[in-house]
Design a protein that fits this description.
The protein has 166 residues and is an alpha+beta fold. Helix content is 16%, strand content 40%. This is YtkA-like domain-containing protein.
């Protein structure tokens, strides 16, 4: 009985991944062309990516407000937002995010964010499910601009033990 449940769960996950790959393969690529070096910027110590979000300051480029919704449920779409502040919006060419689970290989979870008319960037993302109730993640945010390419690693947690809507 347990084997049948695991097989059904595995087939369901593979089906979802196949569906996602077929609908938006350009959003799931990791081929980020970078000319020059990728400058790593430390994440703010008090960064709360979920909920209010956090502001990231990049010397020579400006600041960005980055956020996920307060509640992130695996296998459900959530919107990841990046809002360049002030003059930073003029210099940004492309923004991508790659989600990685700390201490676990969860496959490729990379997205290119769409630029909206107001200058902000957003994308609906889906995190894979993990068998543990709580999982620690990093959103590896890459910002490509006229001033260079920057990488910020933003930690956050997903807690599946909480009821939905909290």
């Amino acid at each position: 009985m347990k084997q049948a449940k695991w097989m059904v769960a595995t087939l369901l996950v593979l089906g979802v991944l196949t569906y996602l790959w077929g609908r938006a393969p350009d959003k799931l690529t990791t081929d980020t062309p970078v000319s020059g070096s990728l400058n790593e910027v430390p994440a703010p110590a008090d960064c709360e990516l979920k909920g209010e979000g956090c502001e990231i300051a990049i010397d020579g480029l400006g600041s960005f407000l980055v956020r996920l919704p307060e509640t992130v449920v695996p296998l459900e779409k959530v919107v990841f937002r990046v809002v360049p502040q002030g003059e930073a919006a003029k210099a940004v060419g492309e923004i991508r995010v790659d989600f990685e689970m700390v201490g676990m290989d969860m496959g490729i979870n990379a997205y290119r964010l769409d630029r909206l008319a107001d200058g902000s960037y957003r994308e609906a993302v889906i995190l894979p499910v993990c068998t543990t109730d709580r999982s620690d993640w990093r959103a590896n945010l890459s910002i490509h601009s006229t001033a260079g390419a920057y990488l910020v690693r933003l930690p956050f947690s997903v807690d599946r033990s909480r009821p939905r809507g909290d």
